[in-house]
Amino acid sequence: MTLQLRYVAGVSPARWLRAWNERRPDLPLEAHRVDEASQLAGLRDGEVDVAFVRLPVDDEGLHVIPLWEEQPVVVLAKDHAFADETSLTLADLADEPLAPVQDDAAMTIELVAAGTGMVILPHGVARLHARKDVVAIPVTDGATTRIALVWTLARDDADIQEFVGVVRGRGAKSSRGRDDDEPALSPAKAAKKAAAERRAAEAAKAGKGKGGAKSGKGGRTSRPAPRTGGKQRNQRRGR
Q1: pLDDT given at position 192
Q2: Is 212 exposed, middle or buried (0-12, 13-18, 19+ CB in 10 A)?
């Protein structure tokens, strides 16, 4: 028995796959990338258990957990007049021709490289199909897209919920109810959170090893009495 996962271009599930396989070696997770046009294929008929999709989708009969937003970039030929810009706006691109959009984003970018025009894509998709003969530049006022985790209402069982917990950064002993209100983390933010928790644990361990300051009543840390200066001592002696 395996857990079947599907994901669209721009999603990098490797971290979650590793976490799942460490936690549930009894239930292997098989992941396959699919075209955006078929991102829901197999879910409703039970062939696929859970999927990372790009919104919007027809959510009838589905649980949908919105995850991270994707920033738009414009992909241009490397010799384009805007190729050296650090960012662009939609107004900057208003007069630029569009490359013929293909079902495969890699083919669309190939047409961009051939000089047929530009294309605006989610940053993750452009990065996946990066080439030396094109550039990807952020579009500051372009519409963002969002990745979501989806599964069917009928398939809402303990295994699915455990995978949802892995994606949302819950530990193996965390309760579902306590963590459901926490915001979902992107892979980068999840890694930063884990690193911060490790550093905090190491710092706490190091502090215990060196020993802390003694505490007085009520758990307050005792401090030495402040020393008085020479002038104050002389005044008390009448000098």
Answers
A1: 58
A2: exposed
Task: Give the list of residues 6+ apart from residue 25 with CB closer than 8 angstroms, or none.
Answer: none
For residues 97 and 80, state if they share a domain: yes
Tens digit of pLDDT for each residue in 191-210? 555 556 556 656 666 665 55
Q: Which two tokens stand for residue 70?
A: 């994707």
Please measure the distance between the N-terminal and C-terminal CA atoms of the chain and give it in whole angstroms: 92
- Any bridge partners for residue 147, and if so which? 54
Residue type, position 143, single letter:
A
- For residue 213, CA distances in Å to 23, 74, 210, 219 come to 39, 57, 10, 11
Strand positions, DSSP E, the chain: 3-8, 29-34, 50-54, 62-70, 72-77, 119-122, 134-138, 145-152
- Are both 24 and 130 inside the same structural domain? no
- Domain boundary residue, one of 138, 157, 172: 138
pLDDT digits (tens, 9 = 90+) for 82-136: 999 999 999 999 999 999 999 899 999 999 999 999 999 999 999 999 999 999 9
- How much is the pLDDT for 13? 92
Asked if the structure places residue 207 within a domain, the reply is no
